Each structure stands twice: as structure tokens, then as C-alpha cells.
Amino acid sequence: MHEYIAFLKRYPWATYLLLAVNIVVFGAMELSGYSSQNIFDLLDWGANFYPYTFKDEWWRLITSMFLHIGFIHLLVNMFALYSLGSDIESAFGHRAFIITYLVSGLSAGLVSGYYNLYVVSAGASGAIFGIYGFHIIQVIAHEWHDKNVVIKSFIGFAIYIAVMTIIGTQANFDNAAHFGGLGAGLVIGLGDVAFNSQRTHRIYPLILVVSLGLVFFTYINMSRDKVQYFDMFQVFLQSDKMSVDRMNNSYSSDSAMVSDFSELLLEWDTVMQEIDSLPELPPALENDRKTLENYAKWRSEEIGYIVTSLKEESYIYLDSLELVRYKMDTMPPLQYVLNYNRPSPSAPDTTEAQKPPAREIVEVYYDSLWKECPIWEHHYYRRGYQDSLGRWDGLVRDYFKNGKIQMKGKYSKDLKDGVFLYYNENNTYSAAGRYEEEYKVGKWQYFYESGVMSSEVRYRDRAYTINTWDSVGNPMVVQGNGEDIHKYPNGVIASYAKYAEGRIEGEAYGYHENGEPYYKEFYNEGRLVYGRSVSREGERFDYDISTFIPHPVGGADAFQQYIASHKIYPLQARLHNISGDLEVVFTVHTDGSISDVRFMNHLGYGCEEEAERLLKAGPEWIPAYLHGMEPVTSEGSVVISFP
């Protein structure tokens, strides 16, 4: 019996038990469908992670000692545990071995949390390093008379530390945990040498109590600054996801969108408060903190511009929106992206092969009348995207010859469709509003060249003037009612019109700069009934609303006869039995020429090409006339039927 007890004392059963536990945990993890190399699975199984461990999950200091990141990690650690642990346990007893292993593993977790920034740590390495530290102290203390043994052990230990550190640096091993475990093993070894010269093992309960007390004290008193930063980052991620989701959402009304986005503003206020309340952080986090602070500020500005734009139904905030989005897009990348939320399962992305090829930006040049021209004659130029048929399709920017922006807008198959911003050459706004397939809709805002707003007009079935201002910002028409009066710099009235419920009503008139009469017009519910104007040379003109509408020379009947006699029914359209009406819109210039032919609907098979040929080869057009005497560029339209 005594021999059996002596055998048990020498037999390294604790080493084999630890080997078994580590191997069983690894096998259980893999067999249950988890991956030992998946960071989210490791966290679920209890890996050491500062924001979790030092918030309230202290038990991770223990569980992380029995997890391993991949089979090679397990194999290396178990080999070291078997070869070193069995010797230490047999030589110094089970208590010394277990206490050294446990305390070293806990210390490794503490040091890892203190020195690392958001590293997911797992493995028995820290505990094994502690065993190594205990071993080297014992060798130095008890074999000091045999210098060869001491030197050999020390060199072997130093080589092992160097190799593990080098490998660990390349393979992202947790070297802080290694040295934390090593330090604990060295201290326990020194304590054993200093207070246990008789090898009675009575010192080990005291070492255990003191060590665990130090571990507990250290855990309680370690700074939680990185926990607070991590928690702030989670609030940041949640708010950013909410922002992206709501910006991609479809809303039944602008008011619903305003309500949702106003809530977003409160979310980002919370994020900024969280950032402001952060304690002093490790220097490595300062750049990220500043980046998050800027991003939160810019996100708030972005959402604020959207809310203000919707409330005021004004698109002039889109430039500010574009600028703040550019700032967000060009912000420096975060060094620590602390998104440790397990991604939700989703279907594999199969859209890559279906994506259309990237389109190149097209640049086209225009003369002073916005007719396409060679580069050496241009006054404007356009940069944007075109489809395979050469139609403007997507974002488009127009520029003055000097490179300053003239227009920002979006086209859909050659038709204006979306928000458009127009600019003066001095970088002030000219007009801002929205088109739906070439037609103005909603509220448009117009500006003087100085940048002061001149009027707000709402477009539905007709145009309704909401408000107008003079050149210094004094209101004239307010909520559709009032007198709109403009003067020349010399004080002479340039124009006068009275508005009622958003429409010109009664008599409107204007004068030349020298004070002589220019025009007098009579309106009924916003529609011109008749007018009379006088040129500076004394020539008189009588006109009605028809002068606002461009029309072909010879009249509409003659134009239709021309179409009928010159129209060629395209062969492909004939073969496919294509028929129908094409609604064509185009620009009529002051000289009667036409350009910029667009189609409100499409028949295909050559019908659009034939309609454009007919228009350009046909009679000139009489442009619209302002006050019956001044030709202005305007939009014309016709319907051409096939066959």
C-alpha cells in the first residue's frame, strides 16, 4: 500500500489530466460544428477578450486556458506540456505543478489584457511558460554547483523563449500572455526556493492563497478604459447600421422620412456623448477615437442636411451633403475595427458575374447655344455616363469653359430624371429642383446671380409661385399672394406683376431702362390672354399665349404633311410589326434650329433614329418669343406615328 501511494505521488497524473481536458475540449468544439480557427466560435467557447473578460466575464481567464486556435497550436502546446509538465510534476509534486500551472495561466490572461489592444487570446501557452519559469528557477537554485547543467538549462530556456517569441510574432501568438505566464512561474519558483527548503509542501496553500489574492486584486483594479471604448464602439456600429438601413429604406412620405431621420440625429448625439465621456485612452487608440469623433460629427451633419432639405423642400443642401459624404469617404481607415458581432448567415453573393461592365465617363463639348461642337469652339462641356445607344444615362455634370460647375443632375435614357442643381459662373446657385422624366415637379428655387433667392415655384399641373424676393432679400410675394416688382439699377421699374394664389392675375407690365413702355399683358388665373409690346425702336407687337410655344415654319398641318411624305418605315420595325406613337421633345434655339432630341417613350427597331432624322432634315422652327418680340430658347414637342 505504501508503495502504491509513493507511486501515485511520483506519477504525473495532473499532467495527463490537463492533457486530456485540453484534447477533449478541442475535440468537442470541432465535433459540435464549431471551428477552433473562427474568432466568433472561440468567443462563444470562452476565449479571453478584454472587453468581455474585464467587464464582467472573469471566468474567461480560466476557460481560455483550455481552448486552442487550430490543431497545430494544440499539438505544440500539448507536446510542451507532456515533456516538461511530467518532469516538473514528478520532481516537485502535484501541488507545485497544479498551482504553478493555474496561477501562471491566470496571470497570462491578466497581462494579455493589460498589454494587448483587443486581441482574442486562447491556449495553454501562458501556463506552460509558467511551468518553464518555475523549472529554470529550480535548476538554478538546486544545480548551481553543476555549471554545465545550469548553463545548458538556461541556454535551452533562452532558445525556447527566443524561438517562441519569433514564431509568435510571425504567427500572431499572444507574446504578452507568454511573458505574463513566465513571470508568474518565476515568482512562484522563487517563493518555493525561498520558503520551502524542507520540501514539506506546506508553503503551497499559502502560495495559492496569496497568488489568487493578487490575481483578484489585479483584476478588480485594472483600468476599464478599453472596455468603455469598446462599448462606445458598439453604440457607434449600431447607429451606423441604423443609418445605412434607413437611407436604403423606402418611405411612403417625406414626413415619415423626416421623423425617422430625426430619431437618427438623436442616435448620433448619443454616440458623440459616448465619445466625449471616454477616459484617457492608450496612445494607439487616439487616432481611431479622433476618426470616430469626426465621422460621428459628419454623419450628424449628413442627416441634418437631409432632414432640412426635406422640411424646406430645398435641394441646395445637396452640395453640402455631397461635401460631407466626401469627407466620410476619404477619412483614414480605423486601425481597430471592433465589430465582434457574429455575421448573420446569408446566401452567397452571385451578383458579381451579373454586374454590368464599368462605364467610362464621356466628355462632350457645346457652343454658346448648347449645340454640340468641336472642342475649339466650345463654351460649355459635359461629363457623364451614356448608355450603349449614346443616350445620357446616370450622373451628369456640365461645366463652363473655365472649368467651373454649371449643372449637376441625373439622366435616365436622355431624360432629366432626378434632382438638378444649376450654377452661375461665379459659383452661386442659379436654380435647384427636381425633374421626373423631363418635367419639373415639386418646389423649384431660383436665385439672383448674387446668390440671393429670387423665387420659389411649385410645379404640378401648372406652375404656382410660392414666394418671391427682391435682389436684397426683401419678400414681395408671400405664400402665393403679393406684388412682384423689379427695378433697374437706376430705379426705373423693370417689371410688375400681381399674384393671387400663386398665379399672375390681372394686368402685368414692364418698362425699358429709359422709362419708356416695354409691354403690357393681361392674365386670367395665371394664363396670358393677350399682350402688347413696344421695342426700343418703336416697333409694336400684339401677341397671346401661342407666342410662348415654338412651332414649325408653315404651321402644324404643313409639318405633318412633311412627316407623312418623307417618313420611311424602318425595315426592322416592319418585320416585327412595330407600330405606335413616338412623343419627341427637343430644344428649339433662338435661330430656329433644333438639337438635343429626346424620346418620352420608345418603340425601337429604328423608329427613334428615323424620327430624329425627320426632325433635323425638316423645316426650321419658330422659337418661343418673350413678350411677343424677343426669341428665347425653349422646348418643342411633336408626336410622330409609325407606320
Automatic annotation (TrEMBL):
**How does this protein sit in the membrane?**
Multi-pass membrane protein
Sorted alphabetically, which PANTHER family does this protein's record hold?
PRESENILIN-ASSOCIATED RHOMBOID-LIKE PROTEIN, MITOCHONDRIAL, RHOMBOID PROTEASE
Name of the featured protein:
Rhomboid family intramembrane serine protease
Gene3D superfamilies per the UniProt record, alphabetical: 3.30.1150.10, Histone H3 K4-specific methyltransferase SET7/9 N-terminal domain, Rhomboid-like
Identify the residues that the record assigns to the TonB C-terminal domain, covering every copy: 554-643
The record's keywords, sorted A to Z, are: Hydrolase, Membrane, Protease, Transmembrane, Transmembrane helix
Give one GO term, molecular function aspect: peptidase activity
A Gene Ontology biological process noted in the UniProt record is:
proteolysis
Region forming the signal peptide: none
Instruction: Say which family it is in.
Output: Belongs to the peptidase S54 family.
- Which Pfam family, any one, appears in the UniProt record? Rhomboid
